[in-house]
Structures are given as C-alpha cells and as structure tokens.
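Pasting as-is:
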Amino acid sequence: MQQRTMKYGVAVVFGLLLFGLVVIGLRNAFTAKVPGANDFYPRWRGAQLFWQEGADPYSEAVTLAIQEGIYGRPATPEEDQVLFVYPFYTVFFLLPISWLNYEWAQPVWLALVMLSVFTAVLLTLKLIEWKMPLWLLTITLIWAIFFYNSSRTVILGQFAGPVYLAMVAALLALKHDRDAAAGLLLALSTIKPQMTFLLVIALLIWAVGQRRWHFIGSFIAAMLLLTGFSFALLPGWLFSFVDQVLFYPAYTFTGSSLWVITGYYWPWLGKPVENGLILLLMAYLIWQWRKLWQLPLSSPQFLIIISLTLIITNMVVVRTATTNYIIMYVPLFLVLKAISGKWRRGDLWAALILLGSIVGMWALFLASVQGDTEHPIMYLPLPFLLLPIMIWTNYQANRGRLAAI
C-alpha cells in the first residue's frame, strides 16, 4: 500500500513538472510573442473583471473592455462582438487564473485544454473498451493533438476540450457505477450547453429507466449549486446570459452543418428545408431514445444511441463550431474499433485512417481558408460521414446483427 502511494506521488510530481514545462514552453515560444486564444480571452477577461472589480461580465462596459483587449478598439458591427456569452458559473472555474496576467494565463489555459483533449481521448478508448497495440496507441495520441478539430480547440483555447473531458468522464463513471461523480461531471459539462444539452436529456431518460437515482440526484444537486451560487453573486445573470445567446447569431456567420448545406451551398433550399431536416433528425433521435429506458449501460446499443445523440447535437443547434465536434470522437472511435476488429489488417487500416484524416482535414482547411476565417466546408466531413454509419449500425443492432458495421 505504501509503495503504491509512493508511485502515485512520484507520478503526480512528474506530471506537474511536465505540465509546468509545457506552460513555460508555450509562453516563451508563442503567447509572449503573439497573444491569441481568442475564444478564451472573453471568458477570462470577463471573469477577471468580475473577481477583481465586481463588474458584471455581461455588461456593456466589460464587453467594451474585452473588445479593446482583442481589437485594441471597440468592435465594428460586422465583427465578432466577443461577448462573454457563457453561463455565469464559468467564472468559478477561471478564478485561479483570473489573477494572472494574460501572458501567463493563456499558456496555462492552453496546456489545460491540450491535457483535456489528450486525456479525453484516452478515456474514450477505455469507455469503448478498445485495447490498442502500443504502436497504434502512439499514433492515436499524436492524432489527438494534431487532428484539425483538436488542434483548433487548443489554438483557440476553446472550452470544448474540458467539456469533452467532463462528458466522457461522466459516461465512464456511470459505467463503473460511480453515479455521484457522474452527475457532478455531467453538470460541469453544461459550461457549454450547446455541446451537451441533448446528451443530458438522453442520460436522464436512461437513468429514470434504470433507476439510477443517485446519478439524477447528483446532477440536480450540482446544477443547483452552480446556478445557486451564480444567482447569489449576480442575481440577473440568467437573463443577461439568454440575451447574449439570442444576440449571438447576429454577429456570427456559420450556423450548423445543416445550414452549410441549405443556406450556403444551396441557399435556394432555405430555412424551411433546414428546419424540416432538423425536425426529421430530432424525430429519429427521440424515437431511438425510447429504447434507453431498457438498455443497460453495458449494451453496445447504448453507446450507439449516445453516439447518434452527439452527432445530431452538432447538426441541429442554431450555431455550432468545428471545435465542438470533438465530442464526436466517441462515435469515430467506435467505428475505428469495428474496423480494427473486423477488417483484415484492421489495426493498420485504423492507423491509416487516423493519419490520413490529419493530412486530409488540414489540406482541406489550407485549400479553403479565407483570410483568417475558417471556410464552412470544414463543418461537413465529420457529421456527414459519421451520421449514416451510425444510423446503419443502429439499424443492424435493432435486427440483432451488430457485427455488420
């Protein structure tokens, strides 16, 4: 027991030293010279002004301070307004680094996001019970950082990384009957509600059917604590948050992946077709959710339905981002695991797909990028490749032929 404790202690110390070296390396190589992480700065600056000056992060004064920090001036109407636009309880998580100047806060956050994505991929492999050979695991971990959606998440300092980690950790905790921890982790994932709102509904439906009351209670208690402390510190935060969310589409260009089809490439299809597709996808998903009541978590179809939920989430929200797509790594690795197990030289094929996807997605980005703006085509590959595969897999599972993937 003492020897095991010592090993854990050594591992923790080594991990902290490595993390510190990464932070210093990022600071010296990048952030001290070229401040960035524009998706992180509005949240960090809003939290900093709240904790240090008591300022409302949703206020016009704080918005102006954020704009001047990014643009050096107030934003013009056609530019990203860089509002705080996150639940107020975001400030609790940023409290430790709100006292740092941005030159150090940024590399600390980027290192945390990188670690989140890296760890979340490892937990995803554990969730789907895929024991890779060492050489394939090495390629996977390289992919976890250099794949387009992962790299963009890190570069922008996106909260999508920690949300993905909280989400997959919650699923893994449920799998190991750690219901209290799962409820807390799921609550933490709501820091970006557009990424997990359908997953929350799906898991609560499943939990009621499986009588996992401790999970439900833990989630509700955690949400009450997060929102309760938020109301205590800023009573009007919810209305301000909703106002900013409703204003968000007015200054952002790209909508959902469905919008890219119906509003960008074929605008003659228009909003009616987009709304019709959203209703169709939601109807299909809700129809699949009816099975969650009876499905034990150990059932392969449970993860299939969860995968469909994660894919469809990114297709039906009014606004998404390619950084949010990292939650679709769960269905992606389910597909790769099936290829590994069922194809001849499956591990090699899985490795080639991973390496090819790095090259392919970055080539697509470089060929399509417009100035410093990501082209809408980047929103298409992951959801439109994974959705038909998972629908077919679910169909085969319903027929008792799951191996047909």
